[in-house]
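User: I'm putting together notes for a lab meeting next week and I want to include a structural view of one of the chains we've been expressing. I don't have a solved structure, so I'd like a prediction I can at least talk through. The sequence is below, exactly as it appears in our construct file.
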Amino acid sequence: MDDFEYERRFFCREMPPQLDDGDAPTLIVQSYYVHADNYALRIRLQTRKARVPMTRDTDPLDVLEQCRDLFSQAFVTIKGPAVGGTRYEAEREIDTRVAVELVRRGGEIIIKNRYSAWIDEDGWNIDVFGGSNAPLVIAEAERSSPVTNLAIPSFCVTEVTDQARFSNDGLASNPYAAWEGEFERELAEHGPQFQQVFGRNRIRHTVR
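Assistant: Thanks for the context. Below is the predicted structure for the 208-residue chain, given as structure tokens.
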């Protein structure tokens, strides 16, 4: 088993409507027991049996309570620092009932809807965040080896692969709402950025 994840991550303006097939996305509720210096220990719950709108008013604790009997899977995950799109990750499935109680007793809670789509040769996850991280949308391409020569969909505005503030553990300690304005000013000043160390980037203008 390879205890590493390989992914590239991108900031998006919205969930591309053409990628919503009408099925319920995966609802993810998670909290962190450690999130410092890009090290993390996370408890995650997930289900596709609930459709929860993601807004700034979405209360993760309320959703956790309302959906406690709907969660189908839960995991405890240990993560190391991300470097060049590679991050140590060790994960184990745990009982959902125990996970609910652990999330309640953990740190700040992250809540999001995850949509999955196959675009060209890659599987993509598009995460739509709620609560204090709304209206953030992050798309990520993940492979079993380094993500090189990637076809990047045009809905990806700029790359945030190695920006720790955009990692889920970073968002737990410093939510997007606290620095959204600062990021938008940076984006306006410097424009979109795409890393050039992962081979040839190809922009995919049409996505079905």
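A couple of points you could mention at the meeting. The domain at 4-204 is CATH 2.40.320.10 (Hypothetical Protein Pfu-838710-001). The chain has one domain: 4-204.

User: Perfect, that's what I needed.
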